[in-house]
Amino acid sequence: MHLLILGGTGPCGLLLIQEALEAGHTVVVLVRSPQKLPDSMRSDPSITIVEGQLTDRDTVGKALQGVDAVLSALGPPVKKGIFYPSDTPLAHAYSVVIEVMKTHGVKRLIALGTASIKDDHDKHSIVFAALVSGVAIFAHNAYKDVVAIGELIRAQGVNLDSTIVRVPVLTNDAEKAVVAGYIGDGKVKPKLSRAGFASFSLQQLTSDEWAGKAPLISSP
């Protein structure tokens, strides 16, 4: 498949690119700063780099030419705390991306989310409630952006085959195995390797099990 990967210069995004290449896909990466990509990726013939902003419709349209699916590792950096913008910038970017996806007939969207995005299948969990509350208090603007992303994908992307891959606390473990389910189901746990996120996201390209859904995934 020919894939557009967003958020490709971050830790999860780099793993998404690597996983996609290993699976034999070709990749378009839309980035503001191509120099943040490793030299090996900048010179890889299977990778096309499009430089620009996600809010620029022409740039997004260029990146979407011939694309079969969009995978996104976009997420607000919680560590910025009170310094993260209050105007939900990533949700606004997603609005443009989804609009241009529809114009180009691209249906499949697999997007990073977090436990801050609620789902009707979730049940009460003290652990996850504490995690979400901590983010909502100490990184409120980032929390708002994540929640807005979830709402926007569900509303504006209603005619897309979208999967919001919700993640808990991310680690750098190499383990790719994951458990997929919902908060409070007794299966999912509060940690997940970034490698697991990348692997699960790529698997969704050939499965419709979670299409139109927002599973929370964790390490076993």
TrEMBL record:
Top-level taxon of the source organism: Eukaryota
Entries under InterPro entries matching the protein: NAD(P)-bd_dom, NAD(P)-bd_dom_sf, Polyketide_Oxido-like
Pfam families xrefs: NAD_binding_10
GO molecular function: oxidoreductase activity, acting on the CH-NH group of donors, NAD or NADP as acceptor
Gene3D superfamilies: NAD(P)-binding Rossmann-like Domain
Residue span, NAD(P)-binding domain: 7-207
PANTHER family per UniProt: FLAVIN REDUCTASE (NADPH)
Family: Belongs to the avfA family.
Protein name (database record): NAD(P)-binding domain-containing protein
